[in-house]
Design goal:
The protein is α+β, with helices and mostly antiparallel strands. The strands form four sheets. The chain has a seven-stranded antiparallel β-sheet with strand order 3-2-1-12-11-10-9, sandwiched between helices. Strands 13-14-15-16 form a four-stranded antiparallel β-sheet. A three-stranded antiparallel β-sheet has the order 4-8-5, with helices on one face. β11 and β12 form a beta hairpin. The N terminus is likely disordered.
Length: 493
Amino acid sequence: MTSLRDAAACRLRSASGTFAFLVFLMVAPAVAAQSFEERHGPAVDALVSRALTETGAPSASIAVVENGRIVFARAYGVRSLATAEPATDEHRYHIGSASKTFTAALAAMLADEGRLSLDAPVGRLLPETTAAELITLRQALSHTAGYQGYFTMDATPAEGRRAITPADILARWAAAQLDTPPGTAWAYSNTGYTVAGVMIERATGSALNDLLQSRIFRPLGMTSAADVDQRGPGTGDAVGYTRFLLGPPRPARAIGPGWTFAAGGLVMTASDLARFDVALMDGPLLSASARATMTADTRLNDGEASGYGLGLYVGEFSGRRRWTHDGSIDGFGAENRLYPDRRAAVIVLVNADFGRTPYVIADGVEALLLDPPAEVPPAPRPAPTAPPPEALPGGEAERDRAIALLNQLRAGRLDRSNLTDDVLDYFSDQVLADYRDSLAALGPTTAFIQRRRDKIGGLDASLYEVTVGGRLLIAILRLTPGGEVASFVVFPA
């Protein structure tokens, strides 16, 4: 899954309606936006059209910020394959884990106001969690707390279709044994953001969604923004699609209420996400100190940089600062990139959870927008050689299991013994048919190489490079301690 949230400043909260309206105008699309469209509009059109054709994603919605203003907002493809209705820039998309930036910004603002502490023990508000006196909110927001994550599988588990509460998530994952000691490692965790969301609610006495609306969405004129659990999908939303191996796009199944909470539950238009980006970079949303706190690279206990701040990946592009967060959730993908030194941003939202469509489009638009100077590339380093299967102790039996599963999928008949309920739920008759037809169209398997073997979330996880009919695929097998298949997926490399 990919995640959520944020907030606006105290002065925005107490400002008059006139001031809020002026803020909205400040970040609204401007007539001067024609300059980007004249320079790059045709190139963006061609780039997006090619990406949609190559990946099979039904649509994409793009927004571009230049010099602190939205200068481009356009949608491509269709909102729904069933109706062939064209996508428009007014349609909402699920932004998945790009929502985490909102949660982190809200926490940074509340900390700046003295209503919440980023460095006090989590136990002051959540004594029921593991290591509550050792872990801080800052660590939860920076993925360095060591919490066990949920939704870590390669497909949403069966229970993910049913409702859950944040309290249930805390009891199962935040109160479980830690994966790593606090501050010693960076590991992406939706659990940490559930912890942050509940802490925000307990510190303020307000629902997280209410705070987002009053502190961010309304002051910035983000009229489309909402929590998906509070406002279900409608005719103004893009329909999300998934794909099984190389099969056709199929409507994605909805995730049950409660799972995305503070970690990935927001829907909005690309333009509304751009409005947030403008305010985040240099608007009145955050104080300078809160912005610096949110965008500082988090250091581990040994001093190593993690590459992540609070709700944002932090780094550089062409010698300038770049803040990013992506999102992937059933049926949708998102990529949000901010360039604070240029007061610029690139937002790409797609209604597909397969392929690399958001990243491909964002890379192309980024190059057009920033037009980085030509640089002499560094001398190439030899690519690391992955160890052969025999160099991975204990992996031979797992590789045999993975090969057997692939052969069963090729035949369209899966041996359902020794499979978990999650695997049985995933491999419906339709999914089996899509796998069978995809593999049959590609041809014979000519290589099956184990590239990685790890223990992740208590499961034995193995990654394979598989060559089928000249096409490179990736297969991931996860086994329970008892030897049951917990997950097996195959997708294009």
